[in-house]
Design goal:
Structural class: mainly alpha
Number of helices: 9
Number of strands: 0
Shape: globular
CATH architecture of one domain: Orthogonal Bundle
Largest sheet: none
Distance between the termini: 30 Å
Amino acid sequence: MVSDCADAQEPEFAHLVRQAKAGDAAAFEAILCQFERRVLLTAMRLLNGNLEDAKDAAQQVFLRLHRSLHQLDANRQLASWLYRITVNVCRDMLRVRARRPVVPLEEAGHYAMAGGTEDAMRRDEQMLLIYAALATLPQRERAAIVLRDIEGISTSEVARILGSSEVTVRSQISNGRVKIRKFIDRQQRRRL
């Protein structure tokens, strides 16, 4: 899933970055509005579906952007830079904070019930299962999967964001997908 702003052109962001560097608060606000959802969703996926932690991470990402604005090259890909900072902030948070448990799948029904319709409950249950599966992956595999499969970023761009080679990223994605499939299969067999 890619945010509503995915089609926005980088040259527009270069212009906004130049304006924000010159002190234009409205330009910085426009950058924030364009990337807020993407950063939050990416952080939430990297932080095992924990919305509160994701909000904290997003706040740190935009704080770092604001602090680093004077150093930021306006011609650089802003989205790639923000994704990289998001991955780094989430990695730091996972290292520093004691990992909070993901909602046990047995309790998923309690949360899904709030959704109402059977389709909504099924979607909620699937999302909980995906978050639980992502939580089992090593950080690098999780980041590669979230950026490539969920955010829809190209493998070469994911490699740049994560500071890895494309071969490494492809391997991480492949290994992560296998682990996710196995996790989901195990969970579904348990329910039968």
